[in-house]
């Protein structure tokens, strides 16, 4: 008959396992395990089998092992894990893509009924429609102020009703009603709360960012940097093109206002002396690319000539002839 290990031996084995995992893995997901059953946890272990390992345990034991291991190896980065070990949490050590691991863990969430005294993690809304309950069950709806009507011998909910708000305790009436309606409003599973990678700790929301999100954030940062650089007249790579353009405008304005000139300023002065050239340029520019402007101009001239001839003809006749 095998001898069961003592409590001290179990602690030594646990400490050795945790230290071995810390040495072999650089990516760790801290997950909340509230209301997760043993069978559900076993399914998650099976789904992650290959390049990920789940380790559960008491927070005090994990903190103690991490502190001793950090002191022994001299790697103080492990100490960043200690503030994350709060509540009912566990660790997932992985060598794969952290985002893929998070998605695999999310697949194993299971529905759960609303038990009395449980704190609701989400808002619970009862949808309108036929409940299938006979009219004798209307007392449940009356207690909860849910508007109903009798339709074809069954109780029907008229409008959607917010039965339980997030953060509230589930009462006996709410739990009984949801049970009768066969509604399992809550779902539980391992939830990633923090991600540790080579000493850095970040929120799991970062894993949901797409390439477009990153590009948008980068563009916003460049815009802010450019605006700040222009405001304080401090040259940066982002602001340099705008500074050159603004400087050119200032030089050009000074040349127009004074006798100083240069080739580009001469063109501007020429247009300012004869504003008609602006109109000529606007007409001839499309003509060079499409060849339609001269035809359009000729049609306009023809219409003007026709209108002029008509007005001349009218002048040659009396209104009473």
From TrEMBL:
One of its GO terms (cellular component) is cytosolic large ribosomal subunit. It comes from the Eukaryota. This is 60S acidic ribosomal protein P0. Belongs to the universal ribosomal protein uL10 family. SUPFAM superfamilies: Ribosomal protein L10-like (SSF160369). Residues 114-183 form the Large ribosomal subunit protein uL10-like insertion domain. It comes from Psophocarpus tetragonolobus. One of its GO terms (biological process) is ribosomal large subunit assembly. GO terms for molecular function: large ribosomal subunit rRNA binding; structural constituent of ribosome. The keyword Ribonucleoprotein applies. P0 forms a pentameric complex by interaction with dimers of P1 and P2. The lineage of its organism: Eukaryota, Viridiplantae, Streptophyta, Embryophyta, Tracheophyta. Keywords: Ribonucleoprotein, Ribosomal protein. Residues 287-321 are annotated as: Disordered. Pfam families: Ribosomal_60s (PF00428), Ribosomal_L10 (PF00466), RL10P_insert (PF17777). Ribosomal protein P0 is the functional equivalent of E.coli protein L10. Residues 287-298 have a biased composition (Low complexity).
């Amino acid at each position: 008959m095998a001898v069961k290990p003592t409590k001290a031996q179990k602690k030594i084995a646990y400490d050795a396992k945790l230290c071995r995992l810390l040495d072999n893995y650089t990516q760790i997901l801290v997950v909340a395990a509230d209301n997760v059953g043993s069978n559900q946890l076993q399914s998650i272990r099976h789904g992650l089998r290959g390049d990920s390992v789940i380790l559960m345990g008491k927070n005090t034991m994990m903190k103690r092992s991490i502190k001793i291991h950090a002191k022994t190896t001299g790697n103080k980065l492990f100490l960043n894990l200690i503030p994350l070990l709060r509540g009912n949490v566990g660790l997932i050590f992985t060598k794969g893509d952290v985002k893929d691991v998070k998605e695999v863990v999310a697949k194993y969430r299971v529905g759960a009924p609303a038990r009395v005294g449980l704190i609701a993690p989400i808002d619970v809304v009862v949808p309108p429609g036929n409940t299938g309950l006979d009219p004798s069950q209307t007392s449940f709806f009356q207690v909860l102020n849910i508007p109903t009507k009798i339709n074809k011998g069954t109780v029907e909910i008229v409008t959607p009703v917010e039965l339980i708000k997030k953060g509230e305790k589930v009462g006996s009436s709410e739990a009984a009603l949801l049970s009768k309606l066969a509604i399992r409003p809550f779902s539980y599973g391992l939830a990633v709360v923090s991600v540790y990678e080579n000493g850095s700790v970040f929120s799991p929301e970062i894993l949901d960012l797409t390439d477009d999100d990153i590009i948008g954030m980068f563009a916003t940062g460049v815009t802010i940097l450019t605006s700040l650089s222009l405001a304080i007249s401090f040259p940066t790579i982002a602001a340099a093109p705008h500074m050159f353009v603004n400087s050119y405008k200032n030089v050009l304005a000074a040349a127009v206002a004074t006798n100083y000139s240069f080739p580009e300023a001469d063109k501007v002065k020429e247009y300012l002396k004869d504003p008609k050239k602006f109109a000529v340029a606007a007409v001839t520019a499309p003509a060079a690319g499409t060849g339609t402007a001269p035809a359009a101009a000729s049609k306009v001239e023809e219409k003007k000539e026709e209108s002029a001839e008509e007005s001349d003809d009218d002048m040659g006749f009396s209104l009473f002839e």
